[in-house]
Specification:
The structure is a single chain. By secondary structure, this protein is an alpha/beta fold. The chain is 46% helix and 19% strand. It has a 6-stranded parallel β-sheet, with helices on both faces. The two termini are 23 Å apart.
């Protein structure tokens, strides 16, 4: 069950400006997700963002948008994005079977979206350091519940190296220089 860049999509759930200030570890989760999104853009892995009721919670955080080259944004009213027919139809049409999920709040929208994706037959990979809630315990429980249902907990490094697959390409060398090497001394907290 290794990730394959040609079969993957990165789904970033509700990293919204109005929500992040109340999320314990929200900025750290956003940085991890943005780092992986940069690699996804380099590898042409689709990056999809969701926004829950943006009129109330604001749009996607500007710092995330600034770090992305290409992305698609979906607005939603359901906690699970899979309940939005346009999203589900577009995801099916994309023909990719692996979905890396991250975002806020882990125990609400990320969890319900992950469960919906699993029920629809997708392979779901829970980006552990990229999913956060107001209370870290709820983020931990959400990851455990998703994994008990078939999701796989991963780190951003795991995803990046599985997408890259090998070290002797020009793409690897560029991503290593730009993303991997500067990160090697950083410490990451998993929720």
């Amino acid at each position: 069950m290794r990730l394959d860049q040609a079969r993957s999509i990165l789904l970033m759930i509700d990293f919204q400006a109005g929500l992040l200030p109340v999320i314990e570890g929200g900025e750290a989760a956003l940085r991890e997700a943005a780092w992986l999104a940069g690699i996804a853009n380099q590898l042409q892995v689709p990056v999809w963002l969701t926004e829950q009721y943006p009129e109330r919670l604001g749009g996607t955080a500007a710092t995330l948008l600034e770090s992305l080259d290409t992305h698609t944004t979906w607005q939603k009213r359901h906690f699970s994005v899979t309940e939005e027919p346009a999203f589900s139809q577009a995801l099916a049409a994309l023909g990719r079977s692996q979905v890396v999920v991250c975002g806020t709040e882990a125990h609400i929208c990320v969890l319900q979206s992950a469960l919906g994706l699993l029920a629809a037959g997708y392979e779901v990979f829970w980006l552990s350091e990229g999913a956060a809630s107001r209370r870290p315990e709820e983020a931990r429980l959400a990851r455990e519940r998703a994994c008990a249902q078939g999701a796989v907990a991963v780190s951003a490094d795991m995803v990046a190296y599985e997408w890259l697959h090998r070290c002797d390409t020009a793409t690897f060398k560029e991503i290593h220089r730009r993303y991997l090497k500067p990160r090697s001394a950083q410490t990451v907290t998993f929720y």
